[in-house]
Design goal:
Length: 290
């Protein structure tokens, strides 16, 4: 056996060995199961912050939804409620029953969970990213002025503006007067001041909320998208609107107040919602309250 032949054999053997090591290394790297960033936890644990996870990624059993509208829903665990958002949630949430949801927790403007994936029988299905959703701004009692005086706004009448003006600043530019009250009848309707041609076929921007009392109706103004969502929730559930309100304007001329607008009755002015209650929380009615 020549030295050259022997050297060639050793070189070939070395190449095979190196190739094997390299192949084994590649198989080892590719064969490792990537760690799942989602940490399994109960919805209650996620809400209360008892479970830690990088990037606040959690996997939860699909919850019972207390209310869903558009891409925003409210999940319930006993007496705890949590906002959840997902693409076409209103059309999809029923199909989530019995699955595991991969969610990410966010904290502003209100704590909520965004659905990122769905796991059915161990198979993970990504969910299209939800980029457009409504999120109410909600706070607890410690940041709400619960000492605001109460008043029965239902006693106001279109025939007497003096009583309405008692709830307004005495001087122009004076500080707004806030009162706590309850509104049993509040409606979402085409604006009363629309032309007849638009009134018959109103668009989304032609709608408004109204507080309808026996002898006076106020148009509710400066409603945030989040407050609008929660007002629809109250209306759909048949719950009253209870909170803090400020009357912002009054219709001065009797002839204008005398006119009736169908079920809306007599429009006497405008008011804004400072905050209103839902469950054990308080919802911002117009921007800048909290």
């Amino acid at each position: 056996m020549s030295v050259v032949s022997s050297a060639r054999r050793w070189a070939l053997l070395l190449m095979v060995l190196l190739g094997g090591v390299t192949l084994a290394g590649l198989m080892g790297c590719g064969g490792e199961k990537e760690a799942d960033p989602y940490v399994y936890a109960s919805l209650r644990s996620v809400i209360e912050g008892d479970t830690l996870s990088n990037d606040f990624l959690f996997e939860i059993d699909a919850p019972r939804f207390d209310y869903v509208r558009g891409n925003t829903g409210i999940a319930r665990d006993g007496n705890l409620l949590e906002f959840m958002v997902g693409t076409n949630l209103e059309g999809q949430y029923r199909s989530y029953s019995g699955t595991l949801l991969g969610v990410q927790k966010f904290f502003t403007p209100t704590q909520y969970l965004m659905i990122k994936r769905v796991k059915r029988a161990g198979v993970v299905q990504p969910v299209d990213s939800c980029t457009s959703f409504v999120m109410p701004k909600v706070r607890h009692a410690n940041v709400v002025d619960l000492q605001t005086p109460g008043a029965n706004l239902a006693e106001l009448s279109w025939q007497r503006t003096s009583r309405i003006k008692d709830f307004m600043p005495q001087e122009e530019g004076g500080e707004d007067i806030a009162v706590q009250s309850g509104i049993e009848n509040f409606v979402y309707a085409p604006r009363h001041d629309l032309p007849d041609s638009v009134q018959a076929n109103p668009g989304p921007t032609d709608m408004s909320w109204y507080a309808v009392f026996p002898e006076a109706t106020f148009q509710i103004v400066e409603v945030t998208p989040g407050a609008d969502y929660m007002l629809h929730l109250l209306k759909d559930k048949g719950l009253p609107l209870v909170g803090s309100f400020t009357i912002t304007s009054v219709v001065e001329h009797l002839r204008d107040r005398r006119r009736e607008y169908g079920d809306l009755g007599h429009i006497v002015g405008t008011l804004k919602i400072n905050w209103f209650r839902y469950a054990n929380s308080f919802v911002e009615g117009h921007a800048g309250v909290f």
